[in-house]
Amino acid sequence: MSAEQDPDAALMLRVKQGDMTAFEGLVERYKQPVLNLVFRMLRDAAEAEDIAQAVFIQVHKSAHRYQAASKFSTWLFTIARNLCLNEIRRRGRHPADSMDAGHPDNEEQPWQQFEDKVTAGPTESLLHTELEDKIDEALSELPENQRTAIFLCRQNELSYEDIAKVLGCSVSATKSLIHRGREFLKAKLKPYLKTGQWSSRK
């Protein structure tokens, strides 16, 4: 996709040339979607904010390598997912450790705006009703790739092709992941919607 077709890609090309106003615009536009995705993957509000900030630090550091070959959001969510997978693997190796975000101290950096402005944890926006709470619990039972595929499909209006790029799999595999995930969610939520009773997986 060309920069003419994707305004966000055009902004990122300006970032590549050193335009920090363009970078701040991208941070403002995508900070909540990135935070939501990271929270879905890690299920820890504090670490989600740390990782989401790290995503934008990585975007800034990688600006010189950016090519507008696909949608900016696809590239951004790929970075976010990869950082989350790294954190999940790190947890597996060091389960008792807390994450050291290693944030820069320079308050002039644009990612500090992101940290300052995101004051409410994702639980306030994602889990504000009982039904959403049950949906989130059901989602947590899905494998990571199904959960991420469904979230990207629901929240960020990405095409199957875009989601496949983020997940690093084929379009047909992506469709299968989304279909299986949706079928599980329907089966999981149907009894609750009928009776109001919730049965957690044992």
Amount of beta strand: under 5%
Question: CATH superfamily membership of the largest domain, which one?
Answer: RNA polymerase sigma factor, region 2, helix turn helix motif
CATH class (first level) name of the largest domain: Mainly Alpha
Question: Termini separation (Å)?
Answer: 45 Å
Label the CATH architecture of the largest domain: Orthogonal Bundle
| Shape, principal axes of CA atoms | globular
- Give the strand tally: 0
Question: What does this 3D model show about the protein?
Answer:
It contains 10 helices and no strands. With 202 residues, it is an all-alpha fold. It starts with 6 loop residues before the first helix and ends in a 7-residue tail after the last helix.
Overview features:
Arc Repressor Mutant, subunit A, globular, 10 helices, Rna Polymerase Sigma Factor, Chain: A, 202 residues, mainly alpha, 2 domains, single chain
SSE topology:
Blueprint: H1 7-16, H2 20-42, H3 45-61, H4 72-93, H5 111-117, H6 122-126, H7 130-140, H8 144-155, H9 160-167, H10 171-195
How would you summarize what this structure contains?
This protein has helices at 7-16, 20-42, 45-61, 72-93, 111-117, 122-126, 130-140, 144-155, 160-167, 171-195.
